[in-house]
Amino acid sequence: MKFRDNEAIYLQIAAYVGQNILLGKWPAEQKIPSVRDLAIELEVNLNTVMRSYEFLESLGAIYNKRGIGFFVSPDGHEKVKAFRKEKFIQQDLHDFFNNVYLLDISPEEILKWYQQFKKANYEPKPGKKNENK
User: Fold this and answer.
1) Which domain holds residue 14?
2) Per-residue pLDDT tens for 66-123?
3) What is the pLDDT of residue 133?
4) What CA–CA distances, in Å, run from 24 to 51, 77, 123?
5) How far is it, in rounded angstroms, from Cα 76 to Cα 61?
6) Domain total for the chain?
7) Is residue 124 scored above 90 in pLDDT?
8) How many CB atoms lie within 10 A of CB 6?
9) In a domain, 86, yes or no
């Protein structure tokens, strides 16, 4: 994972975990990687991953079974989606609309590019199982 300088690493890790939940790779009630395993995978400090998990736990997206590990909450998908939607609306949407207006991009063009993006990144390739719901 390549980290950006403009956002705390623990929040970027939380976004990574949230994305796996939203994509259905880590469904409700499934155990997620241990703090140690994710720290090794992402090449970060254990405390950074723990901070990410504590943040997601505070949102209600994951929960801890003491001695067993962290699991996706029954409504974890909805909790992550609501948080990310609010963050997007508060931080990114204004700039997006400003660019759409300044560059005179039509809603039809945006829809076309969105459909191309979705097909290229999230729809199954022929002969492959769809892992991205």
Assistant:
1) 9-77
2) 999 999 999 999 999 999 999 999 999 999 999 999 999 999 999 999 999 999 998 8
3) 43
4) 23, 8, 14
5) 4
6) 2
7) no
8) 6
9) no
**The token pair that represents 114 in the structure block:** 């969105």
Whether the predicted pLDDT of 23 surpasses 80 = yes
Full-prediction pTM beyond 0.85? no
Same domain, 68 and 97: no
Three-state SS letters, the chain: CCCCCCCCHHHHHHHHHHHHHHCCCCCCCCECCCHHHHHHHHCCCHHHHHHHHHHHHHHCCEEEECCCEEEECCCHHHHHHHHHHHHHHHHCHHHHHHHHHHCCCCHHHHHHHHHHHHHHHHCCCCCCCCCCC
> Is 31 within 8 Å of 69 (Cβ atoms)?
yes
Q: Are 73 and 101 in the same domain?
A: no
pLDDT of res. 132: 47
Q: Which two three-digit tokens encode residue 133? A: 């719901």
Which tokens go with 35? Answer: 């703090």
